[in-house]
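pls ignore typos typing on phone
NAP + seq
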Amino acid sequence: MNTTTPTSPIALVTGADRGLGLALAANLLEKGWRVFAGQYMPDWTELTALKAGYADQLTALPLDVTDIDSVRSAAARVGQDVDHVDLVINNAGVISPTIVHPIQEAQDYDEMHRMYDINAVGPLRVIDAFLPLVAAGGLKRLAFVSSEAASINRCKRDAWYGYCMSKTALNMAISVLFNRLRSESYTFRVYHPGWMRSYMGGTKNNTADLEPEEAAVPAITYFLRDRADEDRLVMRDWQGHEWPW
Ligand SMILES: NC(=O)c1ccc[n+]([C@@H]2O[C@H](COP(=O)([O-])OP(=O)(O)OC[C@H]3O[C@@H](n4cnc5c(N)ncnc54)[C@H](OP(=O)(O)O)[C@@H]3O)[C@@H](O)[C@H]2O)c1
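k done
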């Protein structure tokens, strides 16, 4: 089904090959959005399969959030097709099997840096490159998939250093962006999507609470809701609860 029109709202979703990113893209397509989907795994077929049903609405584009040239090329590619973007969803994120090691065991600092580069710095590269396109739109919405693992106030883990630290750093990056951009009418959504049956561990997690398709429903509802949390930066979870920083 293709329902796009010249006035269809336009979104970018990062990390859209599978898991939550794919489900967010599919949900927006069903709602008639024009979607640019960041592709990091060209051999993974789900995004290509989704395109079969939405040929005019969905564009998959190479996007590695650790590589500023890749991110800028993606923005340039989007700018060839459209003159603005209404919604950017920073979804791409990783975890590492090494996070489970407590401090008494060897820490994998390369993996910590990798998680920080993708989870914390990656979204900043995306906003950097896509801001002119977002500025040209009416909605100016910047959404970030963070995690309850970011919360210092409610930290309960005794390991997971690289993942927790990277998501807390992401929240700080968003906070600094908010201070700069809120007065220019940008609107922000910071979100914990719930524990999902996605691929963060490398294979599909079948024991978690939510299928990515289920998780995408409250996520998109919150990302698109008007006048939600506009003048105060808030991290909300999939059940609508606010999380302390
Ligand atoms: N799963 C959960 O329970 C959970 C809970 C809270 C928050 N989150 C957050 O939700 C978001 C989506 O995670 P998910 O569970 O859907 O995981 P996922 O199934 O692994 O999907 C994430 C996608 O991002 C891709 N990616 C990795 N590195 C990238 C890069 N440098 N540039 C662009 N894309 C890249 C991944 O590719 P690879 O598979 O090759 O790495 C994967 O396709 C993440 O930000 C995660 O931190 C997840």
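Residues 109-135 form the longest helix (27 residues). Residues 10-243 form a domain with the Rossmann fold fold (CATH 3.40.50.720). more later
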